[in-house]
Each structure stands twice: as structure tokens, then as C-alpha cells.
Amino acid sequence: MAMAPTPGSETTKAGEIDETHDPALRSWVESANGHAAFPIQNLPLGVFSVGGGAPRGGIAIGDAILDLAALPALGLLEGEALAAAQAADAPALNAMLALGAGPRRALRRAVSRLLASDSPARAALEPLLVQMAEARLHLPAHPGDYTDFYVGIHHATTVGSLFRPDNPLLPNYKHVPIGYHGRASTVRPSGTEVVRPVGQTKAPDAASPSFGPVGRLDYELELGVWIGTGNALGSPIPIREALDHVAGLTLLNDWSARDVQAWEYQPLGPFLAKNFLTTVSPWLVTMEALAPFRRAQPPRPEGDPRPLPYLWDEADQAGGSFALTLEVHLASAAMRAQGTAPLRLSQGDAQAMYWTVAQMVTHHASNGCAMLTGDLLGTGTLSGPRPGTEGSLMEITRNGRLPLDLPGGETRTFLEDGDELTLSGRFEAEGFQPIGFGPCSGIVAPARA
Ligand SMILES: O=C(O)/C=C/C(=O)CC(=O)CC(=O)O
Ligand SMILES: [Ca+2]
Ligand SMILES: [Mg+2]
């Protein structure tokens, strides 16, 4: 029989709520108290650099970053927490994530105690804080591979109806978590400029294709999943164990050139329409931090097939979704110049996911495919069923047919040069301190000649 974890034990599970989630917990880092994204209850992992210094691991706390690489020298950590901080002294957190969930959780618990307002270590730790505004944020891990799923069923239905009016949701959708292999080489952190790609397109009424700057540049609102520990080639990941392989979540924007996509995607799926850039928020919000926000997966609509047994786990259905609000904002160059507030394009939630993160991971590894530490999975575009909840401009403007009004008299069908697009997300649950990801944004730059 499995032993119940001892309260205070360093090995409590990622899904368990412990003293690090106590909403009354406050930090001596004053900016953390009431911070929209990074209160002491979050403690997300990232990589930062200052000036020309080497990138290294850190934890976000309010407006600051705790330098993990400098932490071991203070002699305040021991055991698994010390091992995790030592592994974070690197330009990517792969070595730390490869240690698995135990050391990651042990470090969270230790750092929570060190940053708490009653910590005796404040004076020793203060020199290890870096102001986030003075730091450059990098990807938290080096992604060896990147795969994008299609689990947002309302997006799949709407985009399917625009690309394939007679056949919007293909018959495999409710049986298989569909995905495509992306390019890890073009995953970048928030703030990276979005150079308008050039590509081959062919309008439906054009006699022949042409090559040039794309006209239908779009965004996709997604969650990203960072893999913590992988599986050996040939060894599938049982669904019960799937979340043990997940380190945490991020926001992800799968920038998409819709005119290229429409021309190239059949029969093999997205290719150059989506691999020119994928932007993620730089902070990895750990599965531990998310424990209070786990929710039941919405039940499958009446009449939908039950997935095959390898994809079905009652515990996953009971806690596979999240109490998460997602938003998208747009600010054109003119709006920013005039000091006009960004326009909210949409607000959605995680209920749009037809498949859970665990089902994505298990399906991906089900043929023996090896997941690696640092691999990145996108969920697919998370659009809701109602107007105002769409996760892409293609859906909002019905593929450019219904232009959108911006403040100041501009209109948009797709993204224009100078537009700044920002994804944000907030986890909220009764009785807990809300947490967030920090922004995931990019400004569109003109195509390079
Ligand atoms: O052909 C289609 O129906 C649409 C494909 C995609 O947009 C691929 C994609 O990036 C999946 C997603 O974000 O949901
Ligand atoms: Ca996508
Ligand atoms: Mg992409």
C-alpha cells in the first residue's frame, strides 16, 4: 500500500496543496505581495542574464528574480533542493528539469521558506535579487523538439469550416489527439520581434502561385507544456504517469501565415506557415504551483466516443483541466504612439481543451516515441465557443471577411507591421492567491527584403 505523504515532507506530489500555497503567505520582497503574476505562491523557473553576463537559472518573485546559480554558495540549502539549485547554474534548465519532480519540489519549498516575510535569511538573500526590468529573459529550457497539438475543439471546428466548408471536424478528432511536428529551432521568448515571413501563396482565384511577404499573418493563443523527464525510446508513458513527466506550463503563440497555410497544408499538414517563429512566455509555471488550480476536465458531450483505454484515466479526468483565464491584447504602432490602451481581442479559458495535457503526453509517447527533457508541446489554439473567446484573428474576422475596428479608426483583418500582440493568463481559485505567467508578446516587423 502506498504511504500517505508526511506533511512537510520534501517529496509531496505535484498535485498536492501544501504550505507553499497558503494564501496568507507574504514575502519580504514587497513587490511580490499582491503581484498579478509572481506572488510567493508561484515561484516560476526561468533563465536570465544581466548586461553581458552568462544566462543562468532564476525564480521570479514580484518584480525581481532570485539568482539560483548564486544560491548554493550561501549554504542555506541541502539535499535535493541544493542539487536542483546547483543544476540551475546553466544557460538552460534542462539539467535541473532532468532531475525530476522531487528536487524541483524540494527547491520550491526551500525557496518559499527563504523568501517568506519571516525568513531569517533576508539579509543574505537580498544581494541575490535582480530587478526583472534590468534583466534579459531567455527560454527556460533548450527545447530539443517541439510538437503542436490541436486540442481546442472550437478552434478545430471553426478553422476547419473555413479551410474545409464541407468537412470541418474530421472523424478522427474525437479519437486521436491530433498534432504536427514543429520546429524547435524557432522557439523564442516573449519580446522577440516577429519578422513578417515571406512565402509561397496562391489565392483561390489566382492562376498561379507567387512568392513574397505574407498577407495573412495571424497569432494563435495556446498553452505550452515543458517536459521535465522523458521516456526511453520504445517505452510508452502510461496515462497515470503522464503528468510526472511534465515540469510545467507556459503561454505559447504559434504565429501563423494563413495564406501560406491554405496553399501548402494538404496533404501533410502545417509546414512553413507556422515554423518561422513560436513565442513563449519566459517563465515556466511549475505543476507544483498549479496544484490549487487543477479542475475536472469538462465531460465529453453526450454521444461523443469514449477514448481508447490507453488515453483514459479517471484521475486525469478528475483533475486534468485548470481554472485559468486567457486573454489576448493588440496595440498597433499608432495606438502605442498615442498612448491608447491595448484592445482586448478575446478572453477564453482552459475548458476549450478537448484533450488533457496527460492525454497529449501519453498519446505522443504511445508508439514508443521518446520525449526528452526540455521538449515543448503546444496545446493547439484555445478558442471558446462564443464571440469574444476566439484564439486567432482568422476566427475573429472569419478569414478576413469581417474587419475588426481598433480605437483611433484603424481596422484589422490580419496583423499589420508595427502591431504588438500580447497573450496573458491568470490562474484563479477561491481561497488561493491568483498566479500568472507574465506576458507573451511580440511586435510585427516588416518582411526583410
Ligand atoms: O487544417 C486545420 O484545420 C488547421 C490546422 C492548424 O491551424 C494547425 C494548428 O496549428 C493547430 C492549432 O493551433 O490548434
Ligand atoms: Ca497552433
Ligand atoms: Mg509556430
Q: How does this model look, in words?
A:
This protein is an alpha+beta fold and 449 residues long. The chain has two domains: 19-138, Fumarylacetoacetase, N-terminal domain (SH3 type barrels, Roll), CATH 2.30.30.230; 146-195 and 216-256 and 268-445, Fumarylacetoacetate hydrolase, domain 2. 17% of the residues lie in helices and 24% in strands. It contains ten helices and 27 strands. It has helices at 79-87, 94-98, 101-115, 122-125, 153-163, 258-264, 314-319, 333-337, 357-365, 393-396, and strands spanning 45-49, 56-61, 64-67, 129-131, 136-138, 146-149, 179-181, 187-189, 194-195, 198-201, 210-213, 217-218, 221-227, 246-253, 256-257, 278-280, 285-286, 294-295, 321-322, 324-331, 343-349, 376-378, 404-405, 411-412, 420-427, 435-436, 440-445. The strands form seven sheets. Strands 6, 7, 8, 13, 14, 16, 17 and 22 form an eight-stranded mixed β-sheet that branches. Strands 9, 20, 21, 25, 26 and 27 form a six-stranded mixed β-sheet that branches. A five-stranded antiparallel β-sheet has the order 4-3-2-1-5, with no helix packed on it. Helix 1 (79-87) crosses helix 3. The protein is globular. The chain starts with 44 loop residues before the first strand and ends with a strand. Mean pLDDT is 95; it is low at 1-11. The ligand O=C(O)/C=C/C(=O)CC(=O)CC(=O)O is lined by residues 148, 150, 152, 155, 159-160, 163, 220, 254, 265, 270, 274, 380-381. Magnesium ion binds at residues 182, 254-255, 274-275, 278. Its cofactor is Mg(2+); Ca(2+). Pfam families: FAA_hydrolase (PF01557), FAA_hydrolase_N (PF09298). Its EC number is 3.7.1.2. Residues 173-425 form the Fumarylacetoacetase-like C-terminal domain. Keywords: Calcium, Hydrolase, Magnesium, Metal-binding, Phenylalanine catabolism, Tyrosine catabolism.
